[in-house]
Amino acid sequence: MKQLIECVPNFSEGNDQRVIEQIAAEIREIEGVSILNIDPGKTTNRTVITFVGEPKAVSEAAFRAIKKAAELIDMRKHKGAHPRFGATDVCPFIPVSGITMQETVEHARALARRVGQELNIPVYMYERAATSPERANLANCRAGEYEALGERLKSTDWRPDFGPARLDEWTARTGATAIGARDFLVAYNINLNTTSTRRANAVAFDVRERGRAMIDPVTGKKVTDERGKTIMVPGTLKAVKAIGWYIEEHGVAQISMNLTDISVTPVHVAFDEVCRKATERGLRVTGSELVGLIPLRAMLDAGRYFLRAQQRSTGVPDSELIKIAAKSMGLGELSPFNPRERVIEYILEDAETRGKKRLVDLSLAALVAETSSESPAPGGGSIAAAVGALGAALAGMVANLSSHKRGWDERWEEFSDHAERAKAFQEELLALVDEDADAFNNLMAAYALPAKNDAEKTARHQAIQDATRHAAEVPFRTMTLCRDSMEVIRAMAETGNPNSVTDAGVGALAARAGVLGAFLNVQVNAAGLDDRSLAGELTRRGEEIATRACLQETEILAIVRGRL
User: Is residue 397 classed as helix, strand or coil in its secondary structure?
Assistant: First the structure.
């Protein structure tokens, strides 16, 4: 899965559209970054920009935006309703997919170090990236706001983590910035079959982490501790904030929730718990709605959760997982739920591919036509990957059919695991269909580079070698994946639904074709490498994989014939 980070910097300007646009333009300049939302506030005099991309691109975009904000915003003149202490007040990184929180923290700290050293802006690390427990809370870092910054910078306890610990002409203008890493927040509302805000609040208090005030059963008053502070009875869900309210537009009461850490309380867990607590109070959940965006993994996890509850295979396409998740949680009750508009990864994918033609998006007939055209790409490498993906897909089909075969109910999980593995091979091989074509096109582009003098000749030769290496490594990965997929295919031939055993046999034939077809591309590209050691290694290992694939195919077909 591609590594994706969301960044949500808050800039201390919400009225001057020219300033806001110049900051946003710095972000747009970075390839691989997509702005999802720009939200200016006039009263707060603050703008929140949300953008997503791969870590290095996001870090660069954040740095340039912080730099531009420092050039355009003078904190000595700033007034606004929201707490603030810098031109770029806060800049959190949020892991979206394919990246751990610790890795995200490291990217945040690298950005903070660069901002402190190159821009001479005082930086405080907060949330998960904090350098001490007291700095984890943003309110502590920003105490006293901009007006108290001069004294705090000089204090021993609140020296910045990076950048200058003084208020001079420059830092008086820029203020300080808090850079951190936090979990992804999902805003999620659950609909009830009531118009009562009080009853919705009761359910909200049942589930939210903070819970409700403890009430003395005799006096009916709130119970306090020795310091006079109200004692709270925690709710059942961690990392959840919730309140009940009435939505006049739809005529229903809702539980409005902020899921502050979906790795602790995922969306589907919150939904089921609200259902349980609502039922205990004589209410019914009728559906739910997302406010804003959600990571793909959250929807896929929800789909798997509801399928497992039915003892059904989870190794189905992502579109099916999302469909079962949306249907189970009633996400389309109040308005249509379109994953392409709500799932972060899909929004990015659509932005990246807009105007581009991807082979995997073509119909089968269009792919065949494109392959038969005069263009040399897609060629054998792409087709080898496509054939291999079809072989893995057949293994997944047999596994899914076997998981709900009559009389095999107790084996559903076994086949679900096989289907998940087959799906992983299928998706990786599909990605290689386009990557192989891109590798060929990059090689052709390298050959087209100018070579009028020695420097250009050297650069052209190096570019050709780099592109040739990549063009050999891509089909080598295709070979490896096709060969490895034959383990699942064999399992399905041996233990899968006997009515589908021939499908496993065709899968073996397709996987072997993928291996041998990709190997031809490995050989032709390896021949053009100056690094003869690498060329020899790719060829030797390729021969081993091809030999093993042929043996596996023979063994699988023997198993298939034996079960006919």
Answer: helix
pLDDT at 190: 96
Calpha distance 382→538 (Å, rounded): 19
**Can you count the helices (H) and strands (E) in the chain?**
18, 13
CATH of segment(s) 357-563: 1.20.120.680
Let me know if domain 186-346 sits in CATH 3.30.70.670: yes
What pairing do the DSSP bridges indicate for beta strands 177-181 and 88-97? parallel
> Mean pLDDT, to the nearest integer, of 285-297?
90
Give the relative orientation of helices 267-280 and 296-309 as an angle to the nearest 10 degrees. Answer: 50
Directed axis angle between helix 380-403 and helix 364-372, to 10°? Answer: 160
| 157 part of the active site | no
Q: Which residues pair with 93 in a beta bridge?
A: 7, 181
Read off the pLDDT of residues 146-180 as tens digits, 9 standing for 90 and up. Answer: 999 999 998 989 999 999 999 999 999 999 999 99
Domain 4-181 falls in which CATH fold? Formiminotransferase-cyclodeaminase; Chain B, domain 1 (3.30.990)
How far is residue 122's CA from residue 171's CA, in Å, rounded to a whole number? 7
For the CA atoms of 78, 81, 84, 87, the dihedral, rounded to the nearest 10 degrees, stands at: -40
Cis omega before residue 378 (within 30°)?
Answer: yes
Predicted confidence band of residue 345 (pLDDT cuts 50, 70, 90):
confident
Closest CA to 473 of 528, 405, 420, 412: 528
DSSP secondary structure string, 283-316? --EEEEEEES-B-HHHHHHHHHHHHHHTT----S
Average model confidence (pLDDT) for the chain? 94
The tokens describing 399, both together, are 């596994």
pLDDT at 1: 64
Is residue 363 classed as helix, strand or coil in its secondary structure? coil
Quick one: pLDDT at residue 44? 85
User: Nearest to residue 544, comparing CAs of 521, 519, 527?
Assistant: 519
Answer for the pair 85, 145: CB distance below 8 angstroms, yes or no: yes
The burial of 312, by beta-carbon neighbours within 10 Å (0-12 exposed, 13-18 middle, 19 or more buried), is given as: middle
CB neighbours of residue 41 within 10 Å: 15
Residue 78 falls in the annotated catalytic set: no
Burial class of residue 406, CB neighbours in 10 A (0-12, 13-18, 19+): exposed
Residues 43 and 81: beta-carbon distance below 8 Å: yes
**Of 82, 404, 417, 484, catalytic:** 82
User: Are the CB atoms for 393 and 426 separated by under 8 Å?
Assistant: yes
Q: In the predicted model, what is the mean pLDDT of residues 24-45?
A: 90
The pLDDT of 18-27, averaged and rounded, is 97
Average pLDDT over residues 63-88: 95
Place of tokens 């929730």: 257
Name the residue among 271, 242, 263 with its Cα closest to residue 95. 263
- Quote the CA–CA distance of 172 and 190 in Å, as a whole number: 46
pLDDT of residue 269: 98
Catalytic residue among 89, 436, 438, 503: 436
Matching CATH topology for 4-181 and 186-346? no
Cα separation, 230 vs 210, whole angstroms = 12
CB 353 within 8 A of CB 429: no
